Amino acid sequence: MQLLHAPSSPYLSLLSSKSQPKAGRLSPENCLPLLAINCSVQPRRLKRSIWVLDKRSILSSVSTKAASVEAGTSAISIGTAESDVLKALSQIIDPDFGTDIVSCGFVKDLRINEALGEVSFRLELTTPACPIKDMFEQKANEVVAMLPWVKSVNVTMSAQPARPIFAGQLPVGLQKISNIVAISSCKGGVGKSTVAVNLAYTLAGMGARVGIFDADVYGPSLPTMVSPENRLLVMNPEKKTIIPTEYLGVKMVSFGFAGQGRAIMRGPMVSGVIDQLLTTTEWGELDYLVIDMPPGTGDIQLTLCQVVPLTAAVIVTTPQKLAFIDVAKGVRMFSKLKVPCVAVVENMCHFDADGKRYYPFGRGSGSQVVQQFGIPHLFDLPIRPTLSASGDSGMPEVVADPQGEVANTFQNLGVCVVQQCAKIRQQVSTAVTYDKSFKAIRVKVPDSDEEFYLHPATVRRNDRSAQSVDEWTGEQKLQYTDVPEDIEPEEIRPMGNYAVSITWPDGFSQIAPYDQLQMIERLVDVPQPTPPQPTPAQT
């Protein structure tokens, strides 16, 4: 590799420079230091030796320069090839995020062998249950194969590891769960447990790792609706944790598997039991944990919503007006707790007979929920004897008849839940960020088109925790001058769907709810970053 410096060698500078004497007229002072000792002894022999050496150096240098140019061309070619592949893949748009898969960061481990025309890469999606992963794989193969120099394409599909969108200290059992989805009705007898179980097995059929938590201690339904071989929960004596039972690849926990049947206890005790069952269970890595919520909007429901970082909720109702009244209470509860409701399932809508469709319980409750609360998706479930029978037999309907009408409805619901959870995670992860070029905190609250900037020092001074404000007197403990004007956050992480945790240089971790950030004084004239000045080579 030292030959790469040959152009600066004295041999080439002697022979290539017009100002230097020719080889036959070399004088001792013009000779190389290593050969100068022989210049005065055998000048003629030396002249030939230097010429031969110079000739070899020239040839070596020329070949080295050629190799160097070839290597540089190869490097440029590889860079161009990589650019071509990424440009081709950027034609594929993720319909949920509205951004191409390259900008989404899905393309990983790109390897190119242009000599053989081989391209391989991995598409890492947000969830293994992505409903359009086959389309992504097909399109990726097609657009890359269209490049003229590509002869073979190898696409590998994968998913991001399970991780919650929560900055706080979660219980160990919940630290590897990506999405927690609540199935709620706030009214008993509308088929909430049927929806929860069938949705869980639909997500599992889509390729996700799934668990079910039956949160109804007074009347657990899960032991009737599934038939696991081991019908008792087992305690890990060393870790003092609960090992969930499993049926057809789905992990599950219910008070009905605790060997005590239904509970007869007061509300505070029930909340403690639910907390223990949920947070001390060894769930492992899950893409989705489906929680079958108990009826009502009392202590138990509030405990679940506040202890567990719920990603989203699915509302179950029936066509009757009475069901709508109770469901409306539940939707308002989730709204207040910043848990987005992503779909409404209207159960027992209709049945078909004699070529006609009948609506025995009336119509409009589900659509009324959608219209009044702006929930984007509505799914209808018919009255089917098989759906009811499957719930009693211990075999979910989507497993017993995976090609049936009911299974098709749950497939659509599963696709909706996957897409909405991915969108929520994306919105939450980018809701509050720090822009170093502006030296400002950028805020774009989920489910809002509004975007604004806040001064970091203003955010820090508006902390309302006990460290900044006296809880008893309301006196401001954190003074204006305590916060330097040039303070910058070290880290900003989401806390569920309602707030972010901001870590400051002094080690203080500030919890900033979105509602509070929207009330803080905003930056009106955000300074634009100074564009880089072009270097002489660029002009």
UniProtKB/TrEMBL annotation:
Gene Ontology cellular component list: chloroplast stroma
Pfam families: FeS_assembly_P, GBBH-like_N, ParA
Residues forming coiled coils: none
Localization (cell): Plastid, Chloroplast stroma
Keyword check for Acetylation: no
Keywords, alphabetical: ATP-binding, Chloroplast, Iron, Iron-sulfur, Metal-binding, Nucleotide-binding, Plastid, Transit peptide
Top-rank taxon: Eukaryota
PROSITE patterns: MRP
Protein name: Fe-S cluster assembly factor HCF101, chloroplastic
